[in-house]
Amino acid sequence: MGRGPEGRQAVAVFDDSGLVVVWTRAAERLLGVPRAAILGRPVTELLTLVDLEKLTEGVTVGPVGEGDPPGRWGLWPAGPLPGGIRSGVLDAVFTQSPVGLHVLDADLNVLRINSAAGGLRGASEEEIIGRPFSEVYSRFGAGSFEDALREVLASGVPIFDQRVAGYPLADPEREHIYTVSVFRLEDDLGRPLGLVASAVDVTARDRARDRLAVLHRVHARMGLRLDAVQCARELVRAVVPTFADVAHVALTTAELHSPDTDTTWGDTALRCVAGWPPEADEAPEVGAALDMPYGDAHGPAPYVEEAHAAGPTLVVPLTLRSVLLGVAHFSRPRRPDPFEDDDLRLAADLAAHTAVCLDNARRYEHDHAVALALKGNLARSGRTGRSALETAHRYLPTGLGGGAWFDVIPLSGNRVALTVGHVEGIGPEAMAAMVQLRSAVQVLSALDLDPHDLLARLDDTTRRLGEERVAAGTGGPLTAQCVYAVHDPVTETCAIARAGHQTVLVGHSDGSWRSGLLEETTALGGEGPPFAADEIPVPPGSTLVLLSGRAAPDDAALAGLRARLAGAVPPRAISASDLHDLPLDQAAVLVARTRSLDADDVACWEVTPELTAVSEARRWAVRTLEEWGLTETAFAVELIVSELVTNAIRHGTPPIHLRIIRNPADHTVTCEISDAGTAAPHLRRARAADEGGRGIFISGELSDRWGVRWSEQGKTVWTETAYTP
After folding, report:
1. Rounded to two decimals, what is the model's pTM?
2. DSSP state letter for 600
3. Listed residue (20, 91, 17) closest to 54, CA to CA
4. Most confidently modeled of 114-128, 162-176, 264-278, 444-458?
5. CA 308, CA 333: separation in Å to the nearest integer?
6. Which end of the chain has the least Cβ crowding within 10 Å, N or C?
């Protein structure tokens, strides 16, 4: 067949008389004329058969090349016409593009859509063409979008990636999300003809992004606090409203109480601990006991609960190592979207992370409870000298309080020691040092040392413990602060010493307060003694406030405490509730209201330094106890007085004083013998043939406690005997 000068094969050939002798299928497609209608006919008839409106490509006519009879002409494609380019592109876009396309006229009626747009809409082309845009897309909230379309039509400024959500007829149970872009159509003079809108379904992409966001929120928020209930709260808040409309979590009884009790699938005792949003009627009330049948049919995997009243509901067991810790419920009562396979996979990831956090929390809570139980002994003193003081305290054993302590220690002669201390630092090392120093204070207090002398010895202990820490590589030098005060209800005085800068306040019954009682000194383990000390009068009704840290003079909480405790007539009782508002950095707070013993409960006798005075002292002691109605205790006290007075006359130095104190609150009788000597009596184990050496032994056996304390005037040997009221 004929070829052109460039070797191109002709799609049609005409002979020298102008008849069509070759008409190929390519010619049929190019000019739209069937072969049977033109073959063998004059070429002039071709012009009447070609529809120029549908012509998309031009043609070229010329002589054919060698190999054909002379005089023949051929026809070749000359390329697409300009209008054909636009038409071809438009046809390709509307027939092949996956992007939904809509052509609207100036009145916002739909002129044309492509197949993708019809699929997104869920309706045929015949149901859409010619209808108003707002009517066709009413399921997507098109009414509110119509104003934006008219703005594009008027201004020519396009809209890019506007998000539109709705439930198409093709998938009415699932919300679909589209990004819509709108452009204006114009003629050659720039006048608006209509709009073209493109819509891309981004539902899968957005759902995947939302699931990742939920998972990220759970990982970012959960586990920051080792609290099982807080973990449940973070879970329900993270999934609403992105993943679910309503969520609640119920935990097993074992999860809420003990890490050593495992809950099997047969044990369904659950308690709701978190729900969100709070006002949702579809979630049970927080704290309600639930009995949900979670059996082996589903096991630990999340599953969709069929026909639930709250709409599509996803049940997510929270398990770890085949142990049921709780159950999470995610429901969608506000939307019909069912939970998909990707949702179940997300729920499984959430359940796995939540279960680990719950297990960590309950084990921490268990260990924390054990630690608090051990440290709680600090807040439980035995005999606290109720006749001498009324006390209240606040103790925070966690956080900054890890190294804080307080104590109320009964001493001889109805005196009471008050101490508050704080080890610098936090953590197990500070806690261990706190226990050691508190124990040292208790041991040293048994020696009845003056407060400043006790702190000096405690400073030596602190230095030694610090050296041990440095040598063991478990910490640096140890420093601590401590206040030690001794209240004597007989003399109505209080001796106080302080190492460091802890706050000490003294309130008087007239409502005034004395601050700045002691100057600041170095801490224990620092430069060493002397430490600030003083002895002040504390008449009945005075208030002592000891804090574990320094308080600002203008602290509002401390000012409120002073206002509540001082100035009331009669003095109001103090309680731990008075201390709740104090700053948390005051980990240990001890408040004491002083009392005094009744004058009738104290009897004194001056002993003549002669052995004949022993019998007089015995008779005086028996007579005193009979006046108090303590005849059952008189025999033991009589022997104790006899032995102590005899030892004081033989081994002591005048003057010698005998004092007997009755403590009605603690039901004890204290016998004290004082002299000016400094020689310390000691317990001896006399042999069978020895005539002496049994005085202190007998006194110790007949009393509940005994001891010796020294003062600037000498020493005092004392015994304490309990009686039955």
Report:
1. 0.54
2. G
3. 91
4. 444-458
5. 10
6. C
Helices 203-221 and 341-375 pack at an angle, to 10 degrees, of 10
Could you tell me if 315 and 327 are in contact, meaning their C-beta atoms sit under 8 angstroms apart? Answer: yes
Q: Are 691 and 650 in contact (CB under 8 A)?
A: no
Query: What are the φ and ψ backbone dihedral angles of 392, each rounded to 5 degrees?
Result: -145, 150
Query: Out of 187-201, 379-393, 405-419, which region has the weakest mean confidence (pLDDT)?
Result: 379-393
Computed over every residue of the chain, the mean pLDDT equals: 81
The helix (H) or strand (E) run that includes residue 25 is: helix 25-31
Q: Is there a contact between 303 and 351 (Cβ–Cβ < 8 Å)? A: no
pLDDT in tens, 303-344: 888 767 778 899 999 998 888 889 999 999 988 889 999 999
Query: What percent of the chain lies above the pLDDT cut of 90?
Result: 22
Residues contacting 499, CB < 8 A, separation 6+: 455, 458, 459, 480, 481, 482, 483, 521, 522, 523, 524, 531
- Judged on CB neighbours under 10 Å (0-12, 13-18, 19+), 206 is middle
Assigned token pair, 592: 């004491």
Q: Name the DSSP letter for residue 402.
A: G
Burial of 89 (0-12, 13-18, 19+ CB in 10 A): exposed
Annotate 589-598 with b (16+ C-beta within 10 A) or e (fewer): bbbbbbbbbe
Tokens describing residue 219: 């990982």
CB 59 within 8 A of CB 33: no
